[in-house]
């Protein structure tokens, strides 16, 4: 491995580009300079912290500590899903649907990868578990958030059509079938597109990182493929779970459309 | 006894309605806008949460699945909604020799209307087609919310005739919300009005 270590000055130089971008935003009255700077700062602090924590973690492989980190990652992803909804579900469902779907998809796919595909020993070895789970949670999170947001927005707008179908004797599943399909589709399209364009348009982030860090390109490509497949499966699974639970929750036991189970629109 | 019976039905705007429509009875309901007429119909069709029970021909609603109930007690909303591209896609399970053609002709349509795009229909045409769509289920009771509000006199008469024929042929109980005092008197039958969260006989 011929890893060229980055110095603090290298990073400051790169950060300078972001500052220039913020300055341009301010000069052109785009109004996003604050957001850019805050996001850059957040990213810096978070990644540095994670780097420190992972350093400790890799040295010890303490299962309790690993469990704790996993819990933090998981709940942060669940929170992110919830905060990307225009209309959330009221009560514990708001946080619950997304978080549960993430658990179902990311965790099962990560376990499968660790136990069957990569065959890490022991399977919770943090060097593999944490980056894999992070990659999966991050991507599944987007899919679940988009699908759920699409479902609730559309249900709100199509209330008249959904109720018209119920009134003609359709079951709740028949009445929401179109919306479910649309929601799933929009949740899956980003990752499908990313898979199709991988390598041609851009080198995916992980592969770029690996190559820069000195891995042979073909090895990096294989890992990238693995990740892409896992992410697609995880996103699909998560979006399906979220859309199924979410659409069920839109109806009560008398098959009435219950939009009162969604909060008022935000933003 | 055959017919539709509302048993202690309460909505957000109505207190404890007890009301019986015998089979084949037509009952007109009126009241100021926002007084809760549509909410009452929605409650009978079990579209909103509410209290109370409804019986159809001595069968309580809770004994039927919601789709079964809504097929038997058909609600025609004031505004019709269409989800597919063409009219024909909205006919539920079209069978051979489907009665839809007879319904369409009786409502003044060409049979070809099934192939039309929804977007080229006027509000009145949609309203009439929504009635055909509903009657295809052969409901045993009808809840009509302003069934003729958007229609010219020719089409209003067509719809009234169709509903009267259907009621006579199937002994259908009919709860009809109408803003048109002339229509309520002309067609006759019991008339109730919602006033201060209660049902009263129309003076």
From TrEMBL, chain A:
Keywords associated with the record: Membrane, Transmembrane, Transmembrane helix
Cellular localisation: Membrane
Membrane topology: Multi-pass membrane protein
Principal cellular location given in the protein's record: membrane
Pfam families found in the cross-reference section: UPF0014
Transmembrane segments: 6-24, 36-58, 64-81, 93-116, 128-148, 188-213, 225-246
Domain of life, source organism: Bacteria
Family to which the UniProt record says this protein belongs: Belongs to the UPF0014 family.
Protein's name in the database: Iron export ABC transporter permease subunit FetB
Phylogenetic lineage: Bacteria, Pseudomonadati, Pseudomonadota, Gammaproteobacteria, Candidatus Competibacteraceae
Gene name linked to the record: fetB
TrEMBL record, chain B:
SMART domains for the chain: AAA
MF-aspect GO terms: ATP binding
Name of the featured protein: ATP-binding cassette domain-containing protein
Gene source species: Candidatus Competibacter phosphatis
Highest taxon above the source species: Bacteria
CDD domains according to UniProt: ABC_ATPase
UniProt cross-references to Gene3D superfamilies, sorted A to Z: P-loop containing nucleotide triphosphate hydrolases (3.40.50.300)
InterPro entries according to UniProt: AAA+_ATPase, ABC_transporter-like_ATP-bd, P-loop_NTPase
Pfam families, per database record: ABC_tran
């Amino acid at each position: 491995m011929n890893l060229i270590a980055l110095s603090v000055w290298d990073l400051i130089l790169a950060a300078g580009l972001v500052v220039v971008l913020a300055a341009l935003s301010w000069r052109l009255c785009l109004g996003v300079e604050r957001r850019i700077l805050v996001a850059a700062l957040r990213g810096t602090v978070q990644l540095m912290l994670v780097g420190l924590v992972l350093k400790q973690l890799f040295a010890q492989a303490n299962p309790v500590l690993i469990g704790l980190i996993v819990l933090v990652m998981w709940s942060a992803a669940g929170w992110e899903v919830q905060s990307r909804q225009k209309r959330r579900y009221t009560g514990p469902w708001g946080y619950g649907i997304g978080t549960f779907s993430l658990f179902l998809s990311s965790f099962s796919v990560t376990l499968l990868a660790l136990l069957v595909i990569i065959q890490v020993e022991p399977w919770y070895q943090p060097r593999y578990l944490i980056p894999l789970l992070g990659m999966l949670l991050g991507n599944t999170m987007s899919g679940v958030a988009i699908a759920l947001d699409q479902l609730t927005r559309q249900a709100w707008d199509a209330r008249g059509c959904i109720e018209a179908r119920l009134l003609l004797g359709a079951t709740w599943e028949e009445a929401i079938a179109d919306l479910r399909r649309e929601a799933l589709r929009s949740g899956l399209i980003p990752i499908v597109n990313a898979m199709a364009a991988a390598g041609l348009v851009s080198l995916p982030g992980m592969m770029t990182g690996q190559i820069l860090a000195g891995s042979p390109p073909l090895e990096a490509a294989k890992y990238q493929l693995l990740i892409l497949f896992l992410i697609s499966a995880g996103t699909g699974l998560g979006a399906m779970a979220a859309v199924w639970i979410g659409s069920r929750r839109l109806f009560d036991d008398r098959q009435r459309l219950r939009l009162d189970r969604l909060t008022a629109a935000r933003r | 006894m055959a017919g539709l019976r509302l048993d202690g039905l309460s909505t957000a705007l109505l207190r404890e309605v007890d009301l019986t429509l015998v089979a084949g009875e037509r009952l007109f309901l009126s009241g100021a806008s926002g007084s809760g007429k549509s909410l009452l119909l929605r409650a009978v069709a079990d579209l909103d949460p509410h209290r109370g029970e409804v019986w159809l021909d001595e069968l309580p609603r809770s004994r039927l699945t919601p789709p079964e109930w809504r097929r038997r007690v058909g609600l025609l909303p004031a505004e019709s909604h269409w989800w597919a591209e063409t009219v024909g896609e909205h006919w539920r399970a079209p069978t051979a020799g489907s009665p839809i053609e007879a319904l369409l002709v009786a409502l003044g349509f060409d049979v070809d209307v099934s192939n039309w795009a929804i977007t080229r229909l006027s509000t009145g045409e949609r309203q009439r087609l929504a009635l055909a769509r509903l009657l295809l289920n052969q409901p045993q009771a009808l809840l009509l919310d302003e069934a003729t509000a958007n229609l010219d006199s020719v089409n209003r008469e067509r719809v009234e005739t169709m509903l009267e024929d259907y009621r006579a042929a199937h002994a259908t109980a009919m709860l009809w919300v109408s803003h048109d005092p002339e229509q309520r008197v002309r067609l006759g039958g019991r008339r109730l009005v919602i006033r201060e969260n209660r049902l009263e006989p129309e003076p």
